UniProtKB/TrEMBL annotation:
Pfam families: FAD_syn, Flavokinase. SMART domains: Flavokinase. The keyword Magnesium does not apply. GO terms for biological process: FAD biosynthetic process; FMN biosynthetic process; riboflavin biosynthetic process. The lineage of its organism: Bacteria, Bacillati, Actinomycetota, Actinomycetes, Bifidobacteriales. This is Bifunctional riboflavin kinase/FMN adenylyltransferase. Residues 182-214 are annotated as: Disordered. Pathway: Cofactor biosynthesis; FAD biosynthesis; FAD from FMN: step 1/1. Residues 245-414 form the Riboflavin kinase domain. Belongs to the RibF family. CDD domains: FAD_synthetase_N. Keywords: ATP-binding, FAD, Flavoprotein, FMN, Kinase, Nucleotide-binding, Nucleotidyltransferase, Transferase. Residues 196-214 have a biased composition (Basic and acidic residues). One of its GO terms (molecular function) is FMN adenylyltransferase activity.
Length: 415
């Protein structure tokens, strides 16, 4: 899979590459945050049509998320998010999305930095670029897709455009999944009060009770298969329900740093993730899941090579994508993958990058081997909520509880 990173100029124009001189392309467009089942349904159709027509399968992916860019502009006098801005609500980083697309057989991904000038272009202009520059013969979209300035290019408008000019087709995919669900508009992360995977709060409610619950929380109607719904579930500790929509366990990625090492003193040494974490961090609590060693971080490799010229790359648009060893390390039978008891907590201090309270993520890998993961990139995946964060009377009581957490982790991950 080839990845091309594109940044629009000041006027919003993009220098689109030539994908092929002999083949046309099947194209889809979106953010694909989370790469949930709906996203995969659309991309699977792109790959299917490309094979059928001997064409190039292409995904145009926007980063940062358009909603974040427009939301930031509204509160900052029309300015765009600055370099280094961290989208703490993004479910997945760019590389995480690219990995899934590669596994699905996509030929080419074009990662476009989403800017206000780019967003101001009309859907007609954008479609013309897709046809003229990328050789698009078919555009594949989900059922609520919309393109261009003010999202004026809905499916009806795009289809009329396609029929009027006859240079490409629109293929609409049913990516709705099992219907819709109500999600509180201003839902805040809420740590479950009891041990065990939380249930849907509306489970067992009558229609009248659901209406009252929805009205009280000003809930809105969203697809079950949606990034909004997944984000809400993770904010309530419902990681198993989120995994059903994602098609795999939700994961976050970061670099292991030195912590306070209190776990080591009671026999539970943990891998502590630094502050630069890719992916949405679930609500505070203790979880069962996995810890995967992705290998030495880029910074660590550069330091080892004494490479003082290594560039610092903005996480918004990675300069390269090389899955390399990480794909093998992520495999279910990888020797770099261990069951893990994961603790997430919140500090009273605020992060300068996100403006939110700083989060602490620690993972205890259940293995007899000694692991030295400092300065390694790791992935932490969540398989189930174990318990809320509580204070213990002493080290012995904490150690006893951690042993119970380890046994529960092994039970859950064995499934």
């Amino acid at each position: 899979m080839k990845v091309t990173n594109l940044t629009p100029d000041a006027t919003g124009l993009v220098e689109w590459p030539t994908l092929s001189t002999g083949k046309r392309s099947i194209v889809t467009v979106g953010v694909f945050d989370g790469m949930h089942r709906g996203h995969r349904t659309v991309i699977r159709r792109v790959v299917e049509l490309a094979k059928k027509h001997d064409a190039i399968s292409a995904v145009v992916m926007f980063d940062p998320r358009p909603g974040v860019v427009h939301g930031y502009a509204k509160t900052h006098d029309g300015m765009e998010p600055p370099a280094g801005f961290v989208d703490a609500l993004a479910l997945t980083g760019v590389d995480q999305r690219l990995r899934v697309m590669q596994e699905m057989g996509v030929d080419h991904v074009l990662v476009v930095r989403y800017t206000l000038a780019f967003a101001a272009k009309s859907y007609r202009f954008f479609l013309g670029q897709m046809v003229g520059k990328l050789g698009m013969r078919t555009m594949v979209l989900g059922e609520d897709a919309a393109l261009g300035a003010n999202r004026a290019g809905d499916l009806k408008a795009i289809n009329l455009y396609a029929q009027a000019f006859g240079v490409f087709e629109l293929d609409v995919v049913d990516d709705r999944g099992p219907g819709h669900v109500r999600v509180p508009v201003d839902a805040k992360p809420q740590m479950p009060a009891e041990p065990g995977e939380p249930k849907d709060p509306t489970e067992g409610m009558s229609k009248a009770e659901k209406r009252a619950w929805s009205k009280k929380l000003q809930a809105k109607d969203v697809r079950v298969w949606s990034s909004t719904n997944v984000r809400y579930m993770l904010s309530q500790g419902r990681v198993q329900a989120a995994a059903e929509i994602l098609g795999e366990p939700h994961g976050i990625e970061g670099t292991v740093v030195h912590g306070e090492e209190r776990g080591r003193t009671i026999g539970f040494p943990t891998a502590n993730l630094g502050s630069d974490i890719e992916g949405y961090i679930p609500v505070d609590g203790v979880y069962a899941g996995w810890l995967i060693d992705l290998g030495p971080s880029g910074a660590a490799v550069a330091a080892a090579n004494d490479d003082e010229t290594a560039e610092t790359v903005s996480p918004a648009i990675p300069h390269t994508y090389d899955p390399g060893m990480s794909v093998a390390r992520l495999a279910a039978d990888s020797p770099y993958r261990w069951p893990a008891a994961i603790s997430i907590g919140t500090k009273p201090t605020f992060s300068e990058k996100t403006g939110l309270n700083e989060r602490v993520v620690e993972a205890y890998a259940v293995t007899d081997d000694w692991l030295d993961l400092y300065d390694h990139d790791v992935r932490v995946e969540f398989a189930g909520f174990l318990r809320p964060q509580v204070r213990f009377a002493g080290a012995d009581e904490l150690a006893a509880e951690l042993r119970r957490n380890v046994q529960e982790t092994l039970r859950i991950t064995a499934r």
